[in-house]
Design goal:
CATH superfamily of one domain: NADP-dependent oxidoreductase domain
CATH architecture of one domain: Alpha-Beta Barrel
Number of helices: 11
Structural class: alpha/beta
Oligomer: single chain
CATH class of one domain: Alpha Beta
Helix content: 25-40%
Strand content: 5-15%
Largest sheet: 8 strands, parallel, barrel
Radius of gyration: 19 Å
Number of strands: 10
Distance between the termini: 36 Å
CATH topology of one domain: TIM Barrel
Shape: globular
Order of helices and strands: EHEHEEEHEHEHEHHEHHEHH
């Protein structure tokens, strides 16, 4: 399956650096086993996830299944330095040391893809280029990309790089459709349409950059679980959730599959990153590739989620 990525952010347990216990390992192994059996073959990491423990636990799982490495793609991200203050760091030294740590924790010799996690306002593109050249020369990274970057931020980096940036991971969901709808809202005075990342979708399509969608299920907001962060006290009591439920019932698939299929219906061929640690939801999400969303249904879901019509 190349239409979905399994996101490993939560498998490491705590974010405070506490070493994973046996319960954390068992839950992580169950989630990873479910993802593998369901057909996920791309696994997404970042050096900061659970203070590095997500990569460590994955490395343990991989060591227990030594034949799987050649059948998967491993992706990780670097560039965020947690602490006081939180910083973004695209310096050559930080990128190189981050990759060494990632490889050690995963127990592998090479990453299939490395993404720069969030834009660094102090970036010197020449430093990024020097780091990428070294990582390519030593065989530690096969491909490169970015995360949460706008079109012009990508262009600034790409001008200096010898390697093609092949991916851009952004937040996209029914609850957060801004990346897609910003193009519709050009010159519109609507507070629900922040003018950010303008033309990023079109830029990525023009330059064959794969868009990956993080948090595509929006914490289950439209698949029955509700999103406590968004203040949903009754997940069933909104138009988008009811429409998702109706479509799932008509198609004979899970609600998760419908929510993801809405993202995948976009012609940019956006690839969702499924980050649930619940084996049932992981398997349920895998049905998304079998769901076809019509133009009418796609716009209907968008407007139901927005709570208003198109401009």
């Amino acid at each position: 399956m190349t239409s979905l990525i399994y996101g490993c952010m939560r498998i490491g347990g705590s974010w405070d650096g506490t070493p994973p216990d046996d319960d954390t390992r068992r839950a992580a192994f169950a989630a990873l086993d479910a993802a593998w059996e369901a057909g996920y073959r791309i696994f997404d990491h970042a050096d900061i996830y659970c203070a590095g423990n997500s990569e460590r636990v994955f490395g343990e799982w991989l060591a227990a299944h030594p034949g799987l490495r050649s059948e998967m793609l491993l992706q990780s991200k670097c560039g965020i330095r947690l602490g006081d203050p939180v910083m973004y760091d695209f310096s050559r030294d930080h990128i190189l040391s981050s990759v060494d740590g990632i490889l050690e924790r995963l127990g592998v010799e090479r990453l299939d893809s490395l993404l720069l996690h969030r834009p660094d306002p102090l970036v010197e593109p020449e430093e990024v280029a020097a780091a990428f050249d070294e990582l390519e020369r030593t065989g530690k990274v096969a491909a490169f990309g970015v995360s949460n970057h706008s079109a012009m931020q990508i262009e600034l980096l790409q001008r200096t790089l010898d390697q093609r940036l092949s991916a851009n991971q952004m937040e996209v969901s029914l609850a957060h459709p801004d990346l897609i709808t910003t193009g519709v809202a050009v010159n519109q005075r609507e507070p629900d349409y922040p003018q950010r990342a303008a033309d990023t979708v079109e830029y990525c399509r023009l330059h064959d950059i794969t868009l990956q969608a993080w948090s595509p299920l929006a914490h289950g907001r439209y698949s029955g679980a509700g999103d406590k962060n968004a203040g949903d006290t009754n997940a069933e009591d909104n138009a988008a959730t009811r429409m998702v439920a109706d479509l799932a019932r008509e198609r004979g698939v899970s609600r998760e599959a419908v929510v993801l299929a809405w993202i995948m219906r976009h012609p940019a061929r956006i690839v969702p990153v499924v980050g649930s640690t619940n084996p049932e939801r992981i398997v349920a999400a895998a049905q998304a590739g079998d769901v076809l969303i019509s133009r009418e249904e796609w716009y209907g879901l968008l407007q139901a989620a927005r709570g208003s019509g198109m401009p």
